[in-house]
Amino acid sequence: MRKPTFLALALTTSAAIAADAGKADFATQVKPILEAACIHCHSEKSSKGDLNMETKEAMIKGGEDGTALVPGDPEKSPIYKLCTLAEDDDDVMPPKKEGVLDKSQIAIIGDWIKQGAPWPEGVVLKQATRVTFVKHVQPILEQNCVSCHNPKKSKGDWDLSTRETAFGSGENAPSIVAFDVAKSAIHGRTILEADDDELMPPKKSGGPLSKEEIAILKGWVEQGAVWPDGITLTAKEKKAAATNTPDTLDLVKKIRDFIIATSKEKAEGEMQKYDNKIPKTGVPYQMVPIKSGEFTMGSPASEAKRGDDEGPQVKVKIKPFWMGAKEVTWDEYQPFMITSVDRNKDGSPKNWKPTDKVTDLVSQPTTPYTEMSFGMGTDGYPAISMTHHAANKYCQWLSAQTGHFYRLPTEAEWEYAARAGTSTAYFFGDDPAQLAEYAWIFDNAENYQYSKVGKKKPNPWGLYDIYGNVVEWCLDQYYADTYAKASGVLDGSKWVPSKTPYPHVVRGGSYDDDPDMCRSAFRRGSEAEWKAQDPQLPKSIWYHTDAKWLGFRIVRPLEIPSAEEMFAAWNNGVPKE
Question: DSSP letters of 107-157?
Fold first, then answer.
C-alpha cells in the first residue's frame, strides 16, 4: 500500500470507530488490547489470581475472585471495572507500573461486553508485546519523522507534532487509523522498498526504519494508536547505533594468544579425558576426547519416524575434539549470566577501560527479567533458555579464562559423538525401549521437568544426557535441505554460517519430547516463538523465555583455529533480530 484512502477524522479514534460501526469488533479491536495488556499475566502458563483469559470460557469461569466476564453487563465484569479504577488504585488493571489502559481502549472493552462479548469459536488469545507511546513510539517519531512533519515544515501537509494534527492533517489524511494498519500510512509508507520515492522516512533522510521500529509502529496502530493527552512531539537527533563495545576481533586475538600459550596437546595421541575448573568461580566441568574418523550423517529411508530433513545421508570426516561429558549446568552458566556490571543491551560493559581484564570485556547477558530456571532447580541442573548468541558468548567467556578454545559443536560433530560409532537410530540400537536407561524424556521425566545432569547411563564414549533432558544447541544455521546440497565428503569441523537469527540447529531431544525426537539423526530448528513471553521491544538477544527445555554442551577442537575463525564461531548467533 502506498497511500491510504481518505476517511473522516471522526473515524480515527477508537471510540468513534466503535460508535460508527455500532459495535466493537473482537478481531481488530478487543483481541489486540487483551493480548497486549492481559495475557502475559493471565494465561495457562502464568495465571495470576488463578485467572486465565485466553478463552471466553476461561474468563467466565474466572479465578480466585470469581468470574472475570459477565456478557452483556460491563459493570459486573471485572475485566472492565478494574480498568476504570483510578491510576493509583492498587486494584487497577493493568497496574500503573505497566501502564493503565487508555479511555478509548476501555470504551472498546465496555462496548464489546454490552454486545454480549461475541468471541469467534476456537479463538485462543496469545500474548503480544504491548506497545506504549512514550517508551516505544515517541522516540521513533521524534528521531525520524517530526523534522519534516511539524507546524513550520509540514511536508505533504502533514503535521505530526500533536495528536490532533497527526491523525487529521495530510494530503491523504488520515495517516493514522486506530486498529487499522492497512489504512495507516504511518506504517504502510515505512514498508516500501528502499528506492521507492514514497518511502517514509526516505533513504536520503536515514530511511528505511529498522524492522524493530516498523514492528513497533504496526503494534501501536493494532492496539489502538493510543496517544496520551498533552504530549507534543519535537524533532530530536537520531541516536547513532552503539559502537562502543570492546568485544572485537582485537579482543579475540588477545584470547587466541593466551590459548596458544596455554594449550599443550599437539597430536591426537596426546588427548586425554580431563577435569577442569572455571577460574572465576572454581566450578568444575569435565571434557572427554572424541577421536577422529568418518561416519555417515543422517538417517536411512528405512529408519522409523525419519524426517525428510535427515537425508539424503552424507559422508563426513571428523577431526579430533573434546566434548563436554555433561550439559552445561547452572553452576557453570549462572556466573556468566548474572553479573554486577552495568551493561548495554548488546552485553558490553557501559564503563570499561582498555586495561581491564580480557575476560571482563567479553559481552555477557543483561540481567534477566524473571528467574530463568523457572523453579525447576539450579544446583547440578542444566542451564536453559539461553539464545544461540548467548551460548556462543559463554564459550568465549570460558575460553578467555581457561586458555582452551571452546565453542558449540557443529551439527556433524554432535551427531558423530552421539552415535559413538554406531549407525542405528540410537547408539544402543533401533528399539527405543532402552531409552529410559540413558535419557530423561516425556515418558519418565520427574515432575515433567529437567533432571540433574549425569544421572542416567552415558553413551559408549562417555557422554551423559546426549539424548533427552534438554535439547542442545549446535553451531549451524538450520536448513531442511542441508544434506541435499552437500557434495563429496564433508569436513565436520565446518559449520553452516548464520545469515538470520532463526532457525539454528538443536539436537538430542528433551524431557518434553517423545523417543523419536531423541534419535541420533533427528534435527530441529529454533523458532522466534521461543521468545513469545519476552515483553521487551526489541526482544532480548540473550533469552528464550519459552524454551524451558533448551540447553547446550561445549566442544574443544584439538586444532586451534585462526582468530578470525574464533570470532566467527563466537558471533555466529546473529544477535540482531
Answer: HHHHHHHHTT----TT----------IIIIIHHHHHHHTTTTBSSS-BGGG
* Contact of 312 with 484, CB cutoff 8 Å: yes
Is 339:349 a contact under the CB 8 Å cutoff?
no
Q: CB 59: neighbour CB atoms within 10 A?
A: 26
- Tell me which CATH code domain 249-274+323-570 carries: 3.90.1580
What phi and psi values does residue 429 have, to the nearest 5 degrees?
Answer: 135, -160
DSSP 332: H
CA distance linking residue 189 with residue 170, whole number of Å: 13
Query: Distances in Å between the alpha carbon of 73 and those of 84, 116, 328, 452?
Result: 14, 8, 54, 51
Residue 2 has what pLDDT? 31
Helices (H), 238-387: 249-262, 330-337, 358-361
Do 49 and 82 form a contact (C-beta atoms < 8 A)? no
Residue 238: what pLDDT? 72
Question: How far apart are the C-alpha atoms of 111 and 335, rounded to whole Å?
Answer: 51
What is the pTM assigned to this prediction? 0.69
What pLDDT, on a 0 to 100 scale, did the predictor assign at position 537? 66
DSSP code string of 474-485: EEEEP-TTTTTT
How far, in Å, CA of 417 to CA of 409, rounded? 10
Q: How far is CA 242 from the centre of its chain?
A: 21
- Concatenated DSSP letters for 366-416? PPPSS-TTTTS--TTSBP--B-HHHHHHHHHHHHHHHSS--BPPPHHHHHH
First-residue to last-residue Cα distance in the chain:
24
Of 443, 441, 466, 436, the C-alpha closest to 453 is 466
Q: Where are the domains of the chain?
A: 9-114, 133-179+204-222, 249-274+323-570
Residue 162 vs residues 57, 167, 227, 448: alpha-carbon distances, Å: 41, 8, 9, 53
Distance of CA 505 to the CA centre of its chain: 15
Spans of the chain, pLDDT less than 50: 1-21
Do the beta carbons of residue 1 and residue 182 sit within 8 Å?
A: yes
Q: How many CB atoms lie within 10 A of CB 396?
A: 26
Residue 444 and residue 403 in contact, taking contact as beta carbons nearer than 8 Å: no
Amino acid, res. 359:
T
Give 181's DSSP letter.
Answer: G
Residue 467 and residue 441: Cα distance in Å, rounded? 8
Beta carbons of 126 and 138 less than 8 angstroms apart: no
Distance CA 39, CA 49 (A): 13
pLDDT (0 to 100) of residue 242: 54
Nearest CA to 336 among 278, 276, 410, 262?
278
Give the pLDDT confidence of 218-238 residue by residue, as tens digits.
999 999 999 999 999 999 877
